[in-house]
Design brief:
By secondary structure, the protein is of the alpha+beta class. It has one domain (about 15-85). It is about 15% helix and about 30% strand. The mean pLDDT is about 80. Keywords: Membrane, Transmembrane, Transmembrane helix.
Length: about 90
């Protein structure tokens, strides 16, 4: 990569590092399985009903661009859009 940067004479603001990650919906359960008086207690695990991938990018000069968030579903409620709005995006 260093060879390509030198050959193309790229400045630090043209070289980016990107990372993709996914956020899972938080599932909580109040149901537990255990014998009365036992110290070996198991909680019932709930399955996540969606995951939300996101992409972040920062250039070599240290400037971050607004993140890309891919929302599940076909419709987005206004309250969700308001909660995830990023200035400059």
């Amino acid at each position: 990569m260093a060879k390509t940067v030198v050959q193309l004479q790229l400045s630090a603001d043209r070289v980016f590092n990107m990372d993709e990650t996914a956020f899972m919906s938080k599932g909580t359960s109040r149901r537990v399985l255990a014998l009365k008086g036992s110290t070996n207690v198991w909680s019932k695990e709930t399955q996540a009903n969606f995951h939300m991938p996101g992409v972040a990018a920062v250039n070599a000069a240290g400037v971050a661009i607004p993140p890309l968030i891919i929302l599940p579903g076909k419709r987005i409620y206004n309250r969700v859009k308001t909660a995830i709005t990023t200035k400059g995006a």
